[in-house]
Write a structure and sequence with these properties.
The protein is an alpha/beta fold and 337 residues long. The protein folds into two domains: 112 residues, translation initiation factor eif-2b, domain 1 (Four Helix Bundle (Hemerythrin (Met), subunit A), Up-down Bundle), CATH 1.20.120.420; 204 residues, Translation initiation factor eif-2b, domain 2 (Rossmann fold, 3-Layer(aba) Sandwich). The protein has eleven helices and 14 strands. The structure holds 5-S-methyl-1-O-phosphono-5-thio-D-ribulose. The site of 5-S-methyl-1-O-phosphono-5-thio-D-ribulose (MRU) has 19 residues, from helix 2, helix 6 and strand 9.
Length: 337
């Protein structure tokens, strides 16, 4: 993802793994549509694209503050659960009074910070996993897509798996396909094969029994928003995965940048959960997967209660939830587990 000659360029994630196509977004409406249909997705990537979106909005508003504000609202509401989007839109928008170059500079800074954060999360997360899991090499289970596509470069949970692979400590990644839009099958399996990391795909409903079988040493997931009490919103199915991991005695580790921690949201109960409508459930990947009149429930995310999470790894710290810590303070000491 980058700002190239006056436009935001992103890989169109909807056509992967069949083809790799780059979208050039030159207007806020195009960006909002791309975000809405998940052409660009994943919490850190949404923050970065939102920052670039402010540059588009500034140009489109042509000095009209009311128009700029309306465009910013369109951008920040494109997806409500990942806090990164609205947070970075508002952070970059603060530079509007200083002109376009300042806005674009702030957006590029957001991008660079997320890239740096990914690198640090990969190393810190791999160190942490080495510490808490005895098996060598390790089998990692993950859900949705948390690799470079979701975070510009590197990623979060998948970056940790990649780092374990580089350290020759990865047996395999067990990736959940992640219904309804199959981010695990389409994107994570693609990224894992790009990195040459061994992996197998499972249907989401196999996760509990695979965990119970003892195959998996650690579950690694990303996050869309982490509340002050560490309740964590992530892709639908993450909560069930955490319950199954707890039942099987497998550590459940969330890997996310500080930019995903929202201390203004006290608990998971206040996190807005995006409802994406029936069509993805009844008609994806093709029309007719269910009778056309079928109603559906399609929350895109769920909330995993803090008590089910072993630890949160960020670019700056490990928050040891199993040891009673919460994300509210800066912690530098080693986790107890
Ligand atoms: O609906 P998506 O594909 O945007 O959901 C993405 C996730 O749930 C990811 O796990 C999360 O954003 C973290 S990405 C590093």
């Amino acid at each position: 993802m980058d700002w190239v000659e006056g436009a935001v360029e992103v890989i169109d994630q909807t056509v992967l793994p069949g083809s790799v196509e780059v979208l050039r977004l030159t207007a806020v409406a195009d960006m909002v549509a791309a975000v809405d249909r998940l052409a660009v997705r994943g919490a850190p990537a949404l923050g970065v694209v939102g920052g670039f979106g402010v540059a588009l909005a500034y140009r489109e508003a042509a000095g009209d503050p009311a128009r700029l504000e309306a465009l910013l609202v369109d951008l920040e509401r494109a997806r409500p659960t990942a806090v990164n989007l609205a947070r970075m839109v508002r952070r970059v928008a603060e530079f509007a009074p200083q002109g376009f170059d300042a806005v674009l500079g702030a957006a590029l800074e957001v991008r660079d910070e997320e890239i740096a954060a990914s690198r640090k999360m990969a190393a810190r997360g791999a160190d942490f996993v080495e510490k808490i899991a005895a098996a060598r090499p390790l089998t990692v289970m993950t859900i949705c897509n948390t690799g470079a596509l979701a975070a510009v470069e590197g990623g979060t949970a998948l970056a940790v798996a990649e780092e374990l692979h580089k350290r020759d400590m990865l047996e395999e990644v067990v990736a959940l396909e992640t219904r309804p839009l199959l981010q695990g099958a389409r994107l994570t399996a693609w990224e894992l094969s790009q990195m040459g990391a061994p992996h197998r795909l499972i249907v989401d409903s196999a996760a509990a029994s695979v965990l119970a079988s003892g195959l998996v040493d650690v579950v690694l997931t990303g996050a869309d928003r982490i509340a002050a009490n560490a309740d964590t919103a992530n892709k639908i199915g993450t909560f069930g995965l955490a319950l199954a991991a707890a039942d099987a005695g497998v550590p459940f580790v969330v890997v996310a940048p500080e930019s995903t921690i929202d201390l203004e949201t006290a608990t998971g109960a206040s996190i807005p959960i995006e409802d994406r409508g029936a069509r993805e459930v009844t008609s994806y990947p093709f029309a007719g997967t269910a009778p056309p009149e079928t109603k559906a429930i399609n929350p895109a995310f769920d909330v995993t209660r803090a008590e089910l999470i072993t630890a949160i790894v960020t670019e700056r710290r490990v928050v040891d939830l199993s040891g009673g810590e919460t994300p509210t303070g800066e912690l530098d000491h080693e986790p107890s587990k």
